[in-house]
What does this fold into?
Amino acid sequence: FQTRMYRVINASFIIGSGFMSRRFVRSMVLIKFIEAKSDGKVVNVDAPVGKSVLDVAIDHNIDIEGACGGELACSTCHVIFTKDVFDKLPAKKEEEDDMLDLATGLTETSRLCCQIKVSELLEGATITVPSNEL
It folds into this structure.
């Protein structure tokens, strides 16, 4: 059983007509990290919408480096998404592609997690943190 946090962005009630409308937007999403360095250790986290996946990983002590601090100047925050999630992500910038060329264990669903913001698209996503060892 997990508790989810919600933020109301629009609520309207019309008394008398019986009409009631509510629209909710999730402010936290569940993300599952798999740490290859730790023999496939699985860590489930509630991630705030709008924060970078790198910052979420660091906040939850996921074994990932992020040497450049999310400035797109290294490939130490390389992660692997499942194909279904990868296909929903925003397109990579050319600079990210260039940095990914330096990553160890690159796959067709690899991204730099400093470039991915948490959104509802990531609800239930599985993100693998590769061992980055040759």
